[in-house]
Amino acid sequence: MLGSEEKRQLVRIANLYYIEGWTQGKIAKKFGVSRPFICRLLQKAKDSGIVEVYIKDESVHTVELEQQLKDKYKLKDIVVVSTEGLAPETVRRAVGQAGAYYLSKNLGDIKQIGISWGLTLSELVKEYPFEHREEINVVPLVGGIGTKHIEIHANQLAYELAKKMQGTSSYLYAPAIVETEELKEYLLEVPDIEMVLEKGKNVDVALISVGNPYKDSTMRSLGYLQDEDLQQFRKMGIVGDIASRFFDASGNIVDHPLNHRIIGLSLEQLRQIKKVIGIVEGAHKLESLSAALKGSYIDVLIIDEHTASALIKEK
């Protein structure tokens, strides 16, 4: 385990090399050591997790996929993450890493970031670098309290991302889905909840993912969805959700009772946000993602190569 002084030294050297663009020879001269010694320290910074390298694949195939999808869905931007050589269990991390890199490089003068919930967004937060962005506030876009899988709840992700940025986070003191519409209306009038939801409507950028309620559904594993709900969903043509709001194959909002018991931004409000970044991994989300894109809920898409290839073939 690294000592605090050793860690500070590695961070200083890594910053000079990776951020400031200094050569190893220049760094060695500054610290009065040999260049091979600096090389070993840089390797140590990687081995200890202080430095993580993101490889942006710009092969002909991924570039073509990006352009085709950008044109097809009128996206502002897209990143297709190469899956070549990756084990299936590491693809989500790679997509999260690409999302973290994209967000970090495109923040500009952004002051308010909204974030939904889920496993892929959790990977983005884990992979986000430590930065000094004290002016940024991160806002949960949907409720989420309880004891199960709190590490993927919007409140937790907002807190963890803000910590990485050395910024601040808001907290939405409510579940994602409540028992009755009456309870929802009551909670919406609680000043703290009302204030956070108002912040959520006015964020500069929103981070979301897309869910498939029928396969590998996080909402189902958390107990938010039961078998009878899924039977109803199929009858009503529901194919996916964003921030726990359900839509059909055309991206239209479906008038299902669950949609009326969500504490969080509506899909109409999501559309009004200046930039919505969708971080999506997995071919099982193909129909859900296609519908979300048809509904114009996503401006920037970060996606794995396999799902991108399948998406091109979707009509």
From TrEMBL:
Record carries keyword Transcription regulation: yes
InterPro entries, per the entry: NagB/RpiA_transferase-like, SorC_transcr_regulators, Sugar-bd_dom_put
Pfam families: Sugar-bind
Domain Sugar-binding, first and last residues per copy: 60-312
Keywords, comma-separated and alphabetical: DNA-binding, Transcription, Transcription regulation
Family named by the database record: Belongs to the SorC transcriptional regulatory family.
Family matches, as PANTHER family: SUGAR-BINDING TRANSCRIPTIONAL REGULATOR, TRANSCRIPTIONAL REGULATOR-RELATED
Protein name: Sugar-binding transcriptional regulator
Organism (species): Ectobacillus funiculus
